[in-house]
Amino acid sequence: MASPKKKLQGLVAATITPMTEHGEINFSVIGQYVDYLVEEQGVKNIFVNGTTGEGLSLSVSERRRVAEEWVTKGRNKLDQVVIHVGALSLKESQELARHAAEIGADGIAVIAPFFLKPWNKDVLINFLKEVAAAAPALPFYYYHIPALTGVKIRAEELLDGIQDKIPTFQGLKFSDTDLLDFGQCVDQNRQRQFAFLFGVDEQLLSALVMGATGAVGSTYNYLGKKTNQMLEAFEQKDFSSALNHQFCIQRFINFVLKLGFGVSQTKAIMTLVSGIPMGPPRPPLQKASREFIDNAKAKLKSLDFLLSTDLKDGNFESCS
Ligand SMILES: CC(=O)N[C@@H]([C@@H](O)[C@H](O)[C@H](O)CO)[C@@H](O)CC(=O)C(=O)O
């Protein structure tokens, strides 16, 4: 059975795939991006080629090269690099899983196939098992994101007996707001050393209360430092401070959600906060509008979420 160096916990940034203005992958900034996550945001785990990374909009060969670049540039800097290898084609998914093992990734994750969909738990497990078997030495995570895949099989149901079928199963990345389902996943698997990684950044504190052992999300790219403060407060049982941090993060996410928020907007915000150009998204996604960027920038400033002093001004909203 696969055993990771240590359990995946804490914050995991769902990495963006940087692109040039012509829509090609901009590999040249990935080294700088690793340093930014570690040094400025205190985030040492990454989830590559997922939703935020536009993994399903990249070719298999691009996905392989992106994974390689993150593993290479993250060596001796990052704790864990998990590669999302989910695809509609089982063969492609297996190829990506094998490749992740070859390059020395720390784990693989897979979403449910979302075009010809599995119609029940056993059918889904069968697919996942075939992928996991292609990388038998790597920890395997199921990436549950029903709003995007349309596969509504409850995670609680899926986890029931999963290690009998997938011995390398190590945890769940849960990108859904159903805290009953999430809580039951934790409750029914207390004897097992699974990682329970929550994926709805604006609700992370509630998931911590339910037993989340970590979190994977897009906002940890640029709000990692702030979210780490919340995790520390929670760890120290300072729930009032933890709640203040969560409310503060919610104010930002709530603001951008109302403007229309997704991968394109994440790319624009990350460019703004980190100064590293993330470029446009790949079609069918479209660049974030100038209006969105200006509004998001003003909100980031007012919440004191901009780390760079030259982007700050004095009008902060109280976040304590
Ligand atoms: C639907 C979606 O993109 N959800 C994000 C969240 O981090 C999300 O951006 C955040 O909670 C704001 O709503 C992550 O769960 C996605 C993720 O981890 C990934 O990119 O693989």
TrEMBL record:
One GO molecular-function annotation for this sequence? lyase activity
Similarity-based family: Belongs to the DapA family. NanA subfamily.
Q: Which reaction does it catalyse?
A: aceneuramate = aldehydo-N-acetyl-D-mannosamine + pyruvate
Q: What SUPFAM superfamilies does the entry give?
A: Aldolase (SSF51569)
PANTHER family per record: DIHYDRODIPICOLINATE SYNTHASE, N-ACETYLNEURAMINATE LYASE
Main enzyme class: lyase
Q: What is this protein called?
A: N-acetylneuraminate lyase
Pfam families registered for this protein in UniProt:
DHDPS
* Family annotation (SMART domains): DHDPS (SM01130)
